[in-house]
TrEMBL record:
Domain DUF629: residue ranges: 137-250
UniProt xrefs under InterPro entries: DUF629
Coiled-coil blocks: none
Keyword Transmembrane helix in annotation: yes
Organism: Brachypodium distachyon (Purple false brome)
Name this protein carries in UniProt: DUF629 domain-containing protein
This protein's UniProt keywords: Membrane, Transmembrane, Transmembrane helix
Gene that specifies this protein: LOC104581305
Transmembrane spans: 387-404
Signal peptide: none
Length: 405
């Protein structure tokens, strides 16, 4: 086994630009720790492997397989925040360079074609994400009520600082929070309306949007011709989203905005179990773009309906179509409405989950001994040590046919 470990180390050293060589070396070291080191002495070995994988993840940041291995290793070591962040990074990879057919170890990724193999990795990551949520929930349940309350209040300035420090320069989340802070402090309003033809143009009042449409887009006279006078700024055309029921927005003593979650029996599930990964969350620009597209489609439907109707609004045909017209009109104003609180809420939940993972890490989680079950339950592909020599021979077969990346 020592010979295999040395060979793997030599290979990784001689092939510093091969992600697969680094990953293979880590697997062999993990096998060695599993089969030849007592549980009380494994942590130091796994920490060294994790340090190597942390550096490798930076150099080979397009490798999904390496990201998964790194995340799993962090979980075994009790570094739950690091495991969570690596899962987020893995889910956020746009065009991962693997998994290809040359698995490390061989046969560890299911599927005969790339899409199936990619799906296999994502399923594995989702299972790890579920394990992380179980850890977080256990930690949450052990918190005092006062400490839980502290988690349920988030300042926008604190949120902006977090995204600015953790993610790359110019990340959309940082820009969005900055825009929110500027706009809300200036106008005092969280809700506004957007023009479907002018991305980035916003209006505090519904009638301001109408005036803009009349003056800047006269071709859209369809709005004036069908507008119900009863549909005014007093009409609730905000986004239909129940998520606003779970929060209150207030200011602290220093005039900073706070998101305060309403504490309920199922607060953990509402806060964390539906939290999307960073790649699932849409940027503010994407939300605006989608709404502009929907708004244009609604106006086109209105035009088509009116095209087939007589101009006389008192006619029976027009009267019959009136409910559909008014429904589309309301849909247009609802679609054109945006609420900064809904946009920021997803970012707040993601921040809180990371904060909870950080709180779950440390202490006993990062100091306890690591037994066989701790490793086998997360790394089933390395559970049987007697196959390590077969793994090594298989790797050298791969070595003859691989393309290093």
């Amino acid at each position: 086994m020592k010979l295999a470990s040395q060979k793997a180390k030599d290979l990784a050293t001689s092939r510093p630009n091969s992600c697969r060589a680094q990953l293979f070396c880590a697997h062999v070291k993990l096998q060695f720790a599993l089969g030849h080191v007592k549980a009380t002495g494994r942590r130091s070995i796994l920490v060294r492997i994790r340090d190597d994988m942390n550096e490798a993840a930076k150099r080979f940041d397009g490798s999904l397989v390496l990201a998964m291995f790194h995340a799993k290793l962090c979980f075994v070591l009790g570094f739950y925040e690091a495991a969570h962040l690596e899962c987020l990074r893995a889910f956020g990879l746009k065009q991962p360079v693997d998994p290809k057919l040359e698995d490390v170890p061989p046969g560890s990724v299911n599927g005969g074609v790339y899409d199936d193999r990619l799906s296999s990795i994502y399923q594995d990551l989702s299972r790890l994400k579920h394990r992380l949520l179980l850890v977080a929930k256990a930690h949450w349940c052990l918190m005092t009520s006062e400490k839980q309350d502290g988690f349920l209040s988030v300042g926008l300035d604190e949120l902006h600082k977090y995204y600015d420090e953790v993610y790359e320069d110019g990340h959309w989340a940082t820009r969005t929070i900055s825009d929110v802070l500027t706009s809300v402090k200036k106008t005092g309003s969280w809700r506004f309306w957007i023009s479907p033809y002018c991305i980035g143009k916003s209006f505090r009042m519904q009638h301001s949007l109408l005036e803009h449409m009349y003056s800047k887009h006269p071709a859209e006279k369809v709005l004036r011709s069908v507008l119900d006078p009863k549909l005014s700024d007093d009409t609730d055309t905000s986004m239909d989203d129940n998520s606003l029921d779970e929060i209150s927005v207030c200011k602290d003593s220093e005039d900073h905005y706070l998101f305060q979650f309403n504490k309920t029996d199922n607060i953990f599930e509402r806060l964390f179990c539906s939290t999307p990964s960073r790649t699932d969350a849409k940027s503010f620009a994407e939300i605006q773009e989608d709404k502009c597209k929907e708004g244009k489609e609604i106006l086109q439907k209105l035009k088509q309906i009116l095209k087939n109707l007589p101009t006389n609004k008192l006619s029976a045909e027009y009267d019959k179509a009136r409910p559909e017209i008014q429904c589309l009109l309301r849909d247009f104003f609802t679609t054109s409405a945006l609420d900064y609180r809904i946009v920021v809420l997803t970012l707040v939940k993601s921040f809180l989950l990371t904060k909870l993972m950080k709180s779950s890490s440390g202490g006993d989680a990062t100091s306890k001994s690591i037994d066989n079950d701790d490793i086998n339950s997360i790394f089933p592909e390395v559970a049987v040590v007697r196959y390590v020599h077969k793994l090594f021979l298989s790797f050298f077969w791969i070595y003859l046919v691989w393309f290093f990346y």
